[in-house]
Amino acid sequence: MMEKIHIDFMGKKYWWFALSGIVIIVGLISLATRGLNLSIDFKGGSRLTAKFNRNTSVGEVRDIVAGAGYPDSVVQTVGDSRYQVTLPSLTADQEDAVINALNTKIGVSDKSWDSVGPTFGRQVVDSMLEAVILAWLIIIVYVSARFEYKSAVATLVALIHDLLVTVGVYSLVGREVTTATVAAVLTILGYSLYDTIIVFDRIRENAPRARRGAYAEMVNNSIWEVMNRSIITSLLTLLPVACLFVFGGQTLKDFAFALLIGIASGAYSSIFVAAPLLTLWKEREKRYRPQVSRSQRKAKVAKAGD
C-alpha cells in the first residue's frame, strides 16, 4: 500500500520549515513569558524521606502534606516502602509541622530531612551543557567524515530543533523540569542522530542517481525507501516509553515525558528538517543546478497541460 503512495516531501519543504518555526516560536514566547517549572534540584528546597507505620500511597501522602499547607509538594516512592516528599525550603518548625501531620494520619517510623541548594542545579545544567557541546562536536566530526560537512550542519540543526521543541513544550504545559529531564534530553540527542543517519545513509547510496534527475526527487525516493523502517522503529520505541509514562513512578514519568516529546520530534526532524535543509543546500551546487531547472520546466509544462 505504501509503495503506491508518493509524497513530494522536498517540494513542500517550506511548509515543513514554517510548521517547525511556528512550534519553536510559540515555545520560545512561552519560555520568555512563563519560563520553566524548575524542580527543587534547580531552585533549592527541603526533601523528606520517610517510612510509615502502615501501608499508604503517594496520593494519601500528597493529600496530607497539602493539608499541612504545601499543595505543590512532589511525592514519590524511593523503594523499600519509603516515600520522598519534595517541598520548598522549610524552617525547623515548618518541618515539624509536616511530620506531625503525617504522624497523626499515618504514623512515621523513620524520617530524614535533606536541604538542596540551587548550586546543585547549576552544576547539573553546566554538566549537561558540557555534554551537549561535546556531543555536538563529535557528531559534526563523525557525520562530516562519513558523509560531508553539509550533512553535519543539517544534522546539527535538526538536533537543535528537537531540543527547542522539547524545552518549549515543557514551558507550555508547565511540567516540572527535574534531573531526570536533563538525562532524557541527552538521550534524545542520540535517538535523533540515529534517525537522521538512517535517512542520510540512504541518500548517500542513491546520490549517483541524482545525476540523471533532480536531487530533490532522489531525496524523496530515499525517504520513502526508509519510511517503513522509520515508522516501525519510532512506534516500537514510543510504546515502552508510553508505558513508562502511564505506569511508572514519578521519576520514570519525568524521564518518559521528555522522551515522548524528543522521540516524536526526532522522527519528524530527520525527514522534514534535516533532509530538506540538505536538499536546499545541495541544489545550489553547480552540478545539480541544470537538473533543478529541467525539473522545474517539466513541472511547469505538466501544470500547463492540466
What is this structure's SSE topology?
Layout: H1 13-33, E1 37-38, H2 40-43, E2 45-52, H3 58-67, E3 74-77, E4 82-87, H4 92-105, E5 108-116, H5 118-146, H6 149-173, E6 176-177, H7 179-206, H8 215-247, H9 250-282, H10 289-305
Parallel strand pairs: 1-6
Antiparallel strand pairs: 2-4, 2-5, 3-4
Brief overview, please?
The chain has helices at about 15-35, 40-45, 60-65, 90-105, 120-145, 150-175, 180-205, 215-245, 250-280, 290-305, and strands at about 35-40, 45-50, 75, 80-85, 110-115, 175. It contains ten helices and six strands; from the N terminus they run H-E-H-E-H-E-E-H-E-H-H-E-H-H-H-H.
Structure description:
This protein has 306 residues and is of the alpha+beta class. It folds into 2 domains: 207 residues, Multidrug efflux transporter AcrB transmembrane fold, CATH 1.20.1640; 72 residues, Alpha-Beta Plaits. It is 70% helix and 10% strand. The strands form 2 sheets. It has a 4-stranded antiparallel sheet with strand order 3-4-2-5. It has a two-stranded parallel sheet with strand order 1-6. β3 and β4 form a beta hairpin. α5 packs antiparallel against α6. The longest helix has 33 residues. The model has no long low-confidence stretch (mean pLDDT 82).
